[in-house]
């Protein structure tokens, strides 16, 4: 299965009724976007098929990716992530506004562990297990990846579990900002970063300079 076929399969997936229903319910539920038509489908990854860096989030945001149809697009997280990618030469634009805004990525592919937006931004354990084969297949298809960067502790934990199931040596890999772990022969390294969420940005738990540190480390590794 190629990446395009995989993404077509993701788009048609309907295995998690709770999440599918939640995605549909979001349209019209937020005043700021009340006149917009939402994407509402499962959200495939986006980026360079020859990427050396795979970025994982936990799941699409209800009014971000679930609205715009592209990962980390149309919300604060995307604003800070893509501007950091732009500063480091990975993105053609610093703003990620909507699905067909012309933005392209070089050497980076972005996806979520779970492909449908969940209530309270938390998929349950069964939804993670149902959806994780898609991430495994993405990892298999993205053959040039040398670094996996997980954004946030939840995404780090779930990405680590998927890598463990694939046979990686994840023992001792604990989440932190700007950490990088060697997972053994045949696997990319696993890196972590605080999530550039609105809360983390407003509380300065993560800043643009801290995101720069992460991407500088990754570029040094590459
Ligand atoms: S979360 Fe994943 S497995 Fe569940 S419906 Fe969405 S795409 Fe399918």
State the gist of this model.
This protein is an alpha/beta fold and 222 residues long. The chain is 38% helix and 11% strand. It has one domain (3-221): Uracil-DNA Glycosylase, subunit E.
What does the model show?
By secondary structure, the protein is an alpha/beta fold. The chain has a single domain, classed as Uracil-DNA glycosylase-like domain (Uracil-DNA Glycosylase, subunit E, 3-Layer(aba) Sandwich). The chain is built from 8 helices and 6 strands. Strand 5 (180-181) and strand 6 (189-193) form a beta hairpin. The chain is globular and about 45 Å long. The mean pLDDT is 96.
Q: Which properties best describe this structure?
A:
6 strands, Uracil-DNA Glycosylase, subunit E, iron-sulfur, metal-binding, alpha/beta, 8 helices, 222 residues, Type-5 uracil-DNA glycosylase, DNA-deoxyinosine glycosylase activity, binds iron/sulfur cluster, 11% strand
How many strands, which pairing sense, and closed or not: the largest β-sheet? 6 strands, mixed
Distance between the termini: 27 Å
The 3D shape can be described as: globular
- Mean pLDDT score, rounded? 96
> What is Rg?
16 Å
| Number of helical regions | 8
Main CATH class: Alpha Beta
Which distinct ligands sit in these coordinates? iron/sulfur cluster
The helical percent reads 25-40%
Low-confidence stretches: none
Tally of domains: 1
Strand content: 5-15%
DSSP E strands, number: 6
């Amino acid at each position: 299965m190629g990446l395009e076929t995989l993404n077509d399969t993701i788009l048609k997936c309907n295995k998690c009724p709770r999440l599918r229903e939640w995605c549909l319910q979001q349209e019209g539920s937020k005043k700021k976007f009340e006149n917009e038509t939402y994407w509402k489908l499962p959200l495939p990854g986006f980026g360079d098929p020859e990427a050396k860096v795979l970025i994982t989030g936990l799941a699409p945001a209800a009014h971000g990716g679930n609205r715009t149809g592209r990962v980390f697009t149309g919300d604060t997280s995307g604003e800070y992530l893509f501007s950091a990618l732009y500063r480091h030469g990975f993105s053609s634009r610093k703003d990620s506004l909507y699905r067909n805004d012309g933005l392209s990525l070089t050497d980076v592919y972005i996806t979520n562990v779970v492909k449908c937006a969940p209530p309270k931004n938390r998929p349950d354990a069964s939804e993670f297990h149902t959806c994780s084969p898609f991430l495994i297949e993405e990892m298999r298809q993205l053959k040039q990846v040398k670094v996996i960067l997980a954004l946030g502790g939840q995404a780090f934990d779930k990405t680590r579990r998927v890598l463990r199931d694939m046979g990686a040596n994840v023992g001792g890999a604990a989440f932190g900002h700007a950490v990088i772990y060697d997972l053994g022969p045949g696997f990319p390294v696993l890196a972590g970063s605080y999530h550039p969420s609105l809360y983390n940005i407003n509380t300065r738990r993560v800043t643009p300079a801290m995101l720069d540190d992460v991407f500088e480390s990754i570029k040094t590794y590459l």
